[in-house]
Amino acid sequence: MSPSVPKYDASQWEAKFTVKYRDTPIKLVRHKRTGIHLCLVEVQSPTVHGYISVHTEATDDYGCPHTLEHLVFLGSKRYPYKGVLDLLANQCLAQGTNAWTDVDNTTYTVETAGAEGFLNIFPVYMDHLLFPTLTDSGFATEIHHIDKDGKDAGVVYCEMQGRENEMGDIMEYRKRHMLFSDKNLSLKAETGGRLKELRDITNRRIQNFHKEYYAPHNMCAVVTGMVQMEDVCARLQAVLEHASDAPSPLPARPFHGAGIEVLKQSKFERVPFPSEDEESGGSVSLSWHGPEWADRERYVASSMLLTYLTKDSVSPLAQRFVESGSGEGENGGESGGESGGESGGE
């Protein structure tokens, strides 16, 4: 979309490191003025993948990370039209664009066939992230509004409505509230948003969330594939010309220094869930605080133990509850955070 290809200016970038992992070069650079990090993994592949991560944190159930993720795709100040990214993705031989919201990050993705397509869509994508329109009309359509029949509507609202009353989501939400105290509100929060809060959230709240978290110094772009670092930097430079300088000193990152408050006693809770019939059954979840991420040996040991217990039909729990006819199924998994995590089996 740009009439001319921007030129790479090495003086704007600071090299952080260059390493090799299994003969694959990995480079990390930082834009000196704005603070954004760019990582290139030179994988020998015909496709180029882009992952743009924003370090986000929610301390309530309004779902600001999720709602903002939806609004980003409705256009930017330079490209103020919905569907621009999808249209450009088709022209760049891309599989469209996508995103996910997690406890500690919101990540936007794109995959193109070859470097040229990626270099064309990458600056437009970044423009959407840094300078979204965030209009009231877009908010009403995408997040929440009352329709002509007086019912709650909106893309995000309907999405979460389909999830909030599901057995698995009810169990996950209650489990987090049992595992974590008010000291760890961000680990209890529903980043997707709860229906009650989605009915009350305002566009101004989302705009403030964007202003706080979607700053270049709080973002990192990871690119994998056969593309030159200088070319990616040049495309990004053109977008960053309109971005603010990174504050000095930088504010503390989300989750910085957060510690897990250990459970002082075991907890048990029975939670009913809506069901169309009595044959839907139920589910049991057993969870506990696991080792810190830094304790790699214990973390891997916990993961291996869960795999052994639940992996397939010959696993001990499968033999006990499934093959014997005592239950329908089981599974195990693990998840974690920066300073600690939880391991659990269901």
Any descriptors?
21% strand, 346 residues, Cytochrome Bc1 Complex, Chain A, domain 1, 3-stranded antiparallel beta sheet, 12 strands, 7-stranded mixed beta sheet, alpha+beta
Fold and architecture overview:
- By secondary structure, the chain is α+β, with helices and mostly antiparallel strands.
- The protein has helices at residues 64-72, 84-91, 115-130, 136-142, 155-164, 167-179, 185-188, 195-200, 203-213, 229-240, 296-310, 316-323, and strands spanning 13-21, 24-31, 37-41, 47-54, 94-101, 106-113, 145-146, 152-153, 219-224, 286-290, 332-336, 341-345.
- The strands form three sheets. The protein has a seven-stranded mixed β-sheet with strand order 1-2-3-9-4-6-5, with helices on one face.
- α1 (64-72) crosses α9 (203-213) and α2 (84-91) runs antiparallel to α3 (115-130).
- The longest helix has 16 residues, at 115-130.
- It starts with 12 loop residues before the first strand and ends with a strand.
- Residues 56-148 form the Peptidase M16 N-terminal domain.
- It comes from Zooxanthella nutricula.
